[in-house]
Amino acid sequence: MSRGMQLPASFGNHDPVNPQRSIARGAAIRPRRRKLPLKDRQRFYVQLSALLGAGPGLIESLDMIEGQLPRPETRTMVQRMKADLAAGMSLSESMKRAQGMFSDFEISTIQVGEHTGEMGAVLERLGQWFQRQLNLQRTLKQALTYPVAVVGMSVVVLGFMLGVVVPMFKDIFARFDAELPKITQFMLMVSDGLIAYRWVIFIAVFVWVLGIWKGSQQPAVIRMGQRLLERLPVLGGLYVQLQLTRLSQALGMMLGASMHLDAALVQGAHALSMWRMRDALEMSRQLVIQGMPLHEALARHDVFPPSWIQLVAVGERTASLALMFERMGQQYETETQTLVQQLTQLLEPVLIVMLGSMVAVILVAMYLPMFELSSAIG
Prior knowledge:
By secondary structure, the chain is an all-alpha fold. It is built from 16 helices and no strands. The longest helix has 57 residues, at 321-377.
C-alpha cells in the first residue's frame, strides 16, 4: 500500500459495498457537465496557491482572484464559493456545489489538502497538473490543425473540380464524335453522380456526423470506438501513451499529496478516458486492497506496458512510488510530444502528395482526350 496517510472511504465517491461503482461514477458515464476550461482552472489553482502562500486567508484570496477572472460565469462561481466559505463550508464542499464545474478528481485532491493541512502544496500541484494537460492539448491541436486544414481544402478543391470544372469539359467532349478514354469516362460519371445526388450525399454526411455525435455519448459505443482506435497503427500507440501520461501524472500528484493508494487509484481512473485502462486499474485496486503489490496487480493486464510496470515495481521497492510516478509522467509527456511532432512532420508531405495526386488524376482525365485529338489531327 501507499506510504501516504489513510483517508476516509468517501473520498472520490468510493463505494465500499460495490467498489466497481467508484469507477462507474466517473465522467464518462455521467451526463456531460459544463466544467471550467483547462486554462481557467490552471489559472485559478496557481493564483490561489500563490495568494495563500503570501498570507491572506481563503476568502480574501478568492476575493482577489475574482477581479482577475475574464469569464462572467467564473466570477459568479467564485462569488458563490466565498458565500459558502463564509457560511462555514469547506472549500471542497463548496466546489461540489459549483454546478459540476469541478471534477471528482479535483474535489478529492482538495480534500486531501484540507485533511493534511497542506492546502497550498495541493493547489500548486493541481496548477502544475492542469498546466501539463494544457501543454498536451496544445501539442495535439497544433498536430491536428494542418491535417484538418489540408483535408478540408482537399474536399473543397475536389468538389469544385468535379462539380464545376469537369462539367465544362463535358460540353466540349460532346462536340467530338470519338470514344473517350476510360479514365475520362469514369471522371465524367463521378461528376454526374455528384451533381445528381448532391442533396442525398449532404443528408447522408449530416446523418453520419449526427450518429457519431450521439454515439459518442453512449458508453457501449465509446468502448467499441476505443478498442478500434487501440488497434490502429501509430495512432493506437499514441492514444495509449497519452492515457499513461495522464495516469502517471495524476498518481504522482495525489500520492505526493499524501493520498492513500486506494483513493489515488480511484481518482487516477477518473483522470482517464480509456475504459479498458480504467477497468484494469479498478481490478488492480481490488488486488492491492487484498495485499498484492501494485506492480503485480498491474502486470495481470496487457493494457499496461511492461516497461511502465517495471518502473512501478522499482518505486515500490525503494518506497518512492510518488516520485517514480512523477518522473514517469514527465518522461511520457516528453515522449508523447516528440511522437506527435514526428507524426505531424510525416503527415504533411503525405497529405500534400495525396491532394496533388487526386488533382493530377482529374486534370489528366480531362486533358487526355485533347492530346489524343491533337495527335489524330496531326
